[in-house]
Amino acid sequence: MDKQYCGYVSIIGKPNVGKSTIINSLLDKKVSITSRKSQTTRNNIIGFKTKKNKQMILIDTPGMHIKSQRTMNKILNKSAQSIIEDTDIILLVLQRLAFEKEDELIIQKIKNTNQKTICIINKIDQIEKKNKLLPFIEKLASFNLFDEILPISAKTKDGINQLEMLIMKYLPENRHIYSESDLMLMIDKDCEFMISELIREKIIRKLGDELPHDIFVEIDMFDEKNNLTEIHATIFVNRKSQKQIVIGSNGQILKSIGTEARIEVEKYLDKKVFLKTWVKVKKNWNTDSGFINSLGVGNNHESK
């Protein structure tokens, strides 16, 4: 039997550097929601890809706020940091030519690890003066920390194939954890989790900076029928004023969110969907660590 190679790959970095887009590009499917707002990802999304005798298992971590004291961010930081020691390969994501104090603090977190580490410079499509890229790479190389430094654009998929080859190159010799039959499995709770994330993505994209990340989405009903899947979802907000923002004048914002989310969920499930949404207020939910943990924030969710 040929040797098999398999390993866990964690994607880390500060918020909004494009980690979710990278994992979606590597897997050629949406397993993690994306938006221009930071702190979109709240769970470690696991996706896997197998090519011949090599299998990589990707983990998309929430953006790390090293010095943040907010309850939500403390939980997310703990979640992100805990997987660093449990993975075989670390992908540290920076954006454009920016290297800030927060990036340096994250580097301190991984300095004493033994894992293979690849530094990804994302969003190179936004760099106007490409001649500044080489000095930036030399600066990063001076840390003597990275096994590879790779400029990419996850949005345009420039460099994604090279990144995949690098990951496959550094996978340790292990038996594959997932088999082809796993691709046919869909666990209800994970399916519902992805649907709730798709709805939350549309809220974030629709409202932008009007609404802080004081929202979560809960699936109340998921009923699969022959030709139609009926889904009821509740959007919880932190304050009464936020409820009106999500609903909008004459319910137009909520209707638009529902329409865009339904289209996305139909693509995900590959079937017709009837989606009904409500908005409710749950005060101070994002400062209640017990309640946040009960939502599964910081947990792993597998994408088959």
Describe this structure in a few short sentences.
By secondary structure, this protein is an alpha/beta fold. It is built from nine helices and ten strands.
- Approximately what portion of the residues adopt beta-strand conformation? 15-25%
Mean pLDDT, as a whole number?
78
Structural class: alpha/beta
Tally of contiguous helical segments: 9
The share of residues in helices is 25-40%
**End-to-end gap:** 25 Å
Extended strand count: 10
Main pleated sheet: 7 strands, mixed
Major β-sheet strand ordering = 6-5-4-1-3-2-10
Explained architecture:
By secondary structure, the protein is of the alpha/beta class. It is 35% helix and 24% strand. It has 9 helices and 10 strands. Strand 2 and strand 3 form a beta hairpin. The radius of gyration is 20 Å and the shape is globular. It starts with a strand and ends with a strand. Mean pLDDT is 78; it is low at 33-43, 71-80, 183-189 and 294-304.
